[in-house]
Fold this sequence. Notes:
Helix content: 25-40%
Low-confidence stretches: none
Order of helices and strands: EHEHEHEHEHEEHEE
Amino acid sequence: MLRVAVCVSGGGTNLQAIIDGVREGTIKNTQIVRVISNNPGAYALERAEKAGIAHSCVSPRSFPDRNAFNEAFLAELIDADPDLIVLAGFMVAVPANVVSHFHHRIINIHPALIPSFCGKGYYGLRVHERALARGVKVTGATVHFVDEDLDHGPILLQKAVEIQEGDTPKILQRRVMEQAEWVILPRAISLIAEGRVSIDQDLITHIAPAAYEKN
């Protein structure tokens, strides 16, 4: 059973997709052991409460400096004892001590096709605003492993979404969530739970076929 901790800052729509996937069995062999937010007002914490999932808040504002927050955040994760950490709309740069401790055990969902529209300053609605401003015809979402750089680690899954005439950033954001984020994030967790994901020496991910696909 894969033990998963989910980190989230806002409403938690991706968290809900994970909760639903575990409940419905589309995410296999997985248990959400804790939901952690940096925002005490995050609706994601209410989603966790309703689902009977342990939850907590670790806010940078509660600590005298960033180092103190980093240590507290790491301690919270160690206490949860996850096999996998999922960043599902987590608006805090993951501290280096956390990345090191959970090497290749942290994944993130980004609302664009990395390496486009990613890195510093590209988060939330801003991603979709800049995609529309650039005039691209296809966008999407990416699940990747987390390393020390923003939106940079090995890519696990991507799904494209077409941009339509008349799209606004909010309309596009919703379509990317519905058609890509809520699809590939649960699938990524399930693939990891099934032991089908590996990362080679060149930091390229590989997905092994399911047992029934080998026959």
